[in-house]
Amino acid sequence: MSVMQWWTTDGLPGLHGALRAVLPFQWAQYGFMLNALIECLLLAPLCAAMGVQLVNFRLAFFSDAVSHSAFTGVAVGFLLQEWASGWGGSFDPQVTLIGFGLLVAFGVAMVRRRTNLATDTIVGVFFSAVVALGLAIVTASGARTSAFQKYLYGDILTLDAADLVWSAVLTLVVGVAMTWCFTPMTLIGLNPELAHSRGLRVRFHDYLFSLLLALVVTVTIRTAGILLVTGMLLVPAATARNIARTAGGMFRWTILIAWVCSVGGTMVSFSTWLENVSTGAVIVLLATLCFAISLFFRRSA
Questions:
Q1: Residue range(s) defining the domain that contains residue 256
Q2: DSSP character for 115?
Q3: Which member of 170, 193, 213, 250 has the lowest number of beta carbons within 10 Å of its beta carbon?
């Protein structure tokens, strides 16, 4: 029995049963809500690991470029899907979504190291190029814009067992990578010249971070969508920056804030008066509220 088969036949129902036994809430009776809860618990460490480094590296715009590359990836994926169906086959747009994300992340990292242009200028060039390419493909192919909605807005309430497995695997990979190189990456973000003088492989860590970011962004798109994924990554980290006094403290605060906002936002969006509001939007708005509150702590410190 494969891991996927075990998860869908024994593991996922068993986990759902355990969660229902300890959660005295009506929404816990619904499988899609439990899937959303599990995804929140998995995404928080991912967003913390990448968000802290984005803030330290001053690369907030970078995640936007990577997330919008998904638009082009999906457009290409739908085009290939139509061609494949014409030949009696099938194609998953998720493949090109991830592929374009990795390509853009690697391209930005490479150009950053080969030119003297400011990082925001380089990211702006890539951002403009991928969005223009995506629009060109969509308009030329006549693809239905309604098919892009789940990628633009995301929906954590529609995740299945396979999505959770990929999130768990990515959480493990990113967790191992960031545990191994969290200190070097933090030093590189604060002072690349000092890091290089101490023998750290700045180029290697730069490329590693860029590729990990692309993977995390493409996975988080399923939850928050292309339009909000940057908020999922940056707002909890920015909030933690206002509160924490050390790099380790910032990482721990980011995880806590991401957990509270993602779980709380999912529960709030399930309520009757917000049932038609995007769950990703509620999560990001809740995180923004936490950021606003953190400003008072920073001002009084």
A1: 3-300
A2: -
A3: 193
Asked if residues 213 and 66 have their Cβ atoms less than 8 Å apart, the reply is yes
Q: Which residue has the higher pLDDT, 170 or 148?
A: 170
Q: In whole angstroms, what is the distance from residue 13 CA to residue 202 CA? A: 44
The upper half-sphere exposure of residue 202, i.e. CA atoms within 13 Å in the direction of its Cβ, equals: 17
The answer to whether 55 and 243 have CB atoms below 8 angstroms apart is no
The whole-angstrom separation of Cα 239 and Cα 256 is 11
Look at the chain and report how many structural domains it folds into. 1
Confidence label for 100 from pLDDT (cuts 50, 70 and 90): confident
Q: State how far the Cα of 92 lies from the Cα of 222, in Å rounded to an integer.
A: 14
Which CATH number do you get for residue 27?
A: 1.10.3470.10
C-alpha 36/C-alpha 42 separation (Å) is: 10
Gyration radius of the chain over CA positions:
20
Grouping H, G, I as helix, E, B as strand and the rest as coil, residue 155 is coil
Q: Would you place residue 291 in the very low, low, confident or very high pLDDT band (cuts 50, 70, 90)?
A: very high
Short-list 217, 211, 203, 177, CA closest to 102: 211
CA 4 to chain centre: 22
What's the predicted TM-score (pTM) here? 0.81
53 contacts 111 by C-beta, under 8 angstroms = no
Determine the Cα–Cα distance for residues 284 and 291; give it in Å rounded to an integer: 10
Neighbouring C-alpha atoms within 13 Å toward the C-beta of 186: 14
Find out whether 246 and 52 touch, Cβ atoms under 8 Å: no
Helix runs in the chain, H state only = 3-6, 12-22, 31-57, 60-86, 93-114, 119-141, 149-153, 161-190, 192-197, 202-224, 229-243, 247-269, 279-300
Residues in CB range of 227: below 8 A, 6 or more apart: 152, 153
